[in-house]
Design goal:
The protein is of the alpha/beta class. It has a single domain, classed as 3-Layer(aba) Sandwich (Rossmann fold). The protein has 4 helices and 10 strands, in the order E-E-E-H-E-H-E-E-E-H-E-E-E-H. Strand 4, helix 2 and strand 5 form a beta-alpha-beta unit. The longest helix has 21 residues.
C-alpha cells in the first residue's frame, strides 16, 4: 500500500516514524454530504451561542476546498484561501511549499476547514505562519490517538494506518510545469 509519516505519542522518543498504510477507504460524494452535514450541525451549535465566534474560515487548498465550499454556502463567514502543499502524488508528506497566503487579522479566531487531520503538520504550519491569530479546526476525518495543537472537531476518526481517498482527488486533473 505505502508509507506515511506519523508522529509518535511517546514524548521520550521525540522522533517521527513510518506507519504502513494497511488499507484504504474511498469517500464517495454521498458519504461526503452525510459527513459535511454533521459538520454544519457542529458549527450551527457553536454559532448559535456566539454568532461572531469566528472571524472567517481558513481553507487549506487543495484538500479543504470541497468541505470549505460546502460550509461557506451554509454558514455566512468569509473564506480565506491558503495554498501550502506538502503531499506529492505518492501519499508521503514532504516539506511544505508556500504558494500563497491570505492576510488574517491578529487576535481573531478563524476556523480551519480541511479534509483530514492526520499528522497535524498543516495545522502546525498555519500556527507558525500566523502566530498572532487563533484557530480551531473542523475536519471530515482525523487519525485516532494523535495529539493536535488546537481545538478541533472531527466528524469521523480512523486509524493512522488508513489512507482516505477523497472523491475530488480522483477527478482533479494533473497539471505539469512543462
Amino acid at each position: 500500500m505505502g508509507w506515511k509519516n506519523v508522529k509518535l505519542h511517546n514524548p521520550n522518543i521525540g522522533l517521527k516514524t513510518m506507519t504502513q498504510v494497511t488499507h484504504e477507504i474511498d469517500l464517495e460524494y454521498r458519504d461526503f454530504l452525510y459527513l459535511a452535514e454533521k459538520g454544519i450541525k457542529i458549527l450551527k451549535n457553536i454559532l448559535t451561542k456566539n454568532p461572531n465566534y469566528y472571524a472567517g474560515i481558513v481553507c487549506p487548498l487543495r484538500g479543504g476546498f470541497y468541505f470549505t465550499d460546502f460550509v461557506a454556502r451554509r454558514i455566512p463567514l468569509p473564506v480565506h484561501y491558503l495554498y501550502i502543499s506538502s503531499y506529492g502524488n505518492e501519499k508521503v508528506q514532504k516539506d511544505f511549499k508556500i504558494h500563497f497566503l491570505p492576510e488574517l487579522k491578529p487576535h481573531q479566531r478563524y476556523l480551519i476547514c480541511d479534509d483530514i487531520l492526520a499528522t497535524g503538520n498543516t495545522i502546525k504550519k498555519i500556527l507558525e505562519l500566523y502566530p498572532h491569530s487563533k484557530f480551531e479546526a473542523l475536519v471530515l476525518y482525523k487519525h485516532k490517538n494523535q495529539d493536535y495543537p488546537i481545538k478541533h472537531y472531527a466528524i469521523r476518526e480512523v486509524d493512522s494506518s488508513v489512507w482516505v481517498n477523497f472523491f475530488w482527488e480522483k477527478t482533479t486533473p494533473a497539471f505539469s510545469n512543462k
